[in-house]
Amino acid sequence: GLASYRQYEQIGCGAFSAVFKARKRQSIEAVALRRVHMCRQEKLLAETHSIFREKEVLASVEHPFIVPLRFAFQTEDHLCFVLDYIAGGNMYSDLSRGPYVHSRAVFYAAQTVLATHHLHELDILYRDLKPDNVLLTLDGYIKLADMGAARGIAENGAISNGATSSSDKTVKAGAPPTLKRRMTITGTHGYRAPEVYERDYGKAADWWNVGILIIEMLTATNPLRGANRTESEQLSKTKDVEFPSFVQPEACSIVSGLLKRDQSQRCGCGERGVIEIYEHAFFRDIDWEGLLSMDSKPPFE
């Protein structure tokens, strides 16, 4: 239980949760201990249900670029997640020092693609990819964190065209991801795909998020983030991203492809599915199998 852990500094927080660097007593290994308050007021019960769905998602996912859930336990008022402690902080804080060089953005983006594809193979939508939720390891890799918005596609009677088998371990597997829908608005404004605001979206919305992440890594700014939800919605539906001259052509190409408003035209969402992303020139230097096994070393120090 909670008394088994010695909690140190707080390293993150949310509306109903706090994350602490912690150590189990009589252990020297640091972990991340996330304490989520379980709301008992009727109007907030949905938040508690969301917490338990997050636990189910975390328990079902095992991937080198997603923060693993070690185990969970419950107290009278909290659900506690014990997760790996990622010492490099998050991408949002890192980008406050300036944009990444091209090779670093490619390497991080490739890992994000692999992790997102894995979730999709499990019929899970991430729904909240943003720099705040991308953690950086000290050896140059990334871990996606915070599955609080993630949901199984088949929940609540969502339309399904059949699950892609998660037993297929090849990185280039995957059917076109536009046929399955979720009907709730979620995520963070400035990152939501335009179809999310229409409550008619599927896996393609996650690939939109990847496009935003790439341009943000390369410029340290999100060109589609407005001052509020309404402004961000309008930007997502009307604004074409303009690229600074230092952004390489293949980066402009993949971002433009991932930010197509027509989901059927969005990169990774057509007949070839995610293969279109894997084979894009932006990733020409990526050995996908080597990266998945973490044999590919970061092209930076």
From TrEMBL:
Keyword ATP-binding in record: yes
Database matches in Pfam families: Pkinase
Keyword field: ATP-binding, Kinase, Nucleotide-binding, Serine/threonine-protein kinase, Transferase
Taxonomic classification: Eukaryota, Haptista, Haptophyta, Prymnesiophyceae, Isochrysidales
Protein kinase domain sequence ranges: 5-283
InterPro entries xref list: AGC-kinase_C, Kinase-like_dom_sf, Prot_kinase_dom, Ser/Thr_kinase_AS, STKc_AGC
Molecular function GO terms recorded: ATP binding; protein serine/threonine kinase activity
Name the UniProt record assigns to this protein: Protein kinase domain-containing protein
Keyword Transferase included in the entry's annotation: yes
Annotated AGC-kinase C-terminal domain residues: 284-301
Organism: Emiliania huxleyi (Coccolithophore)
PROSITE patterns: AGC_KINASE_CTER (PS51285), PROTEIN_KINASE_DOM (PS50011), PROTEIN_KINASE_ST (PS00108)
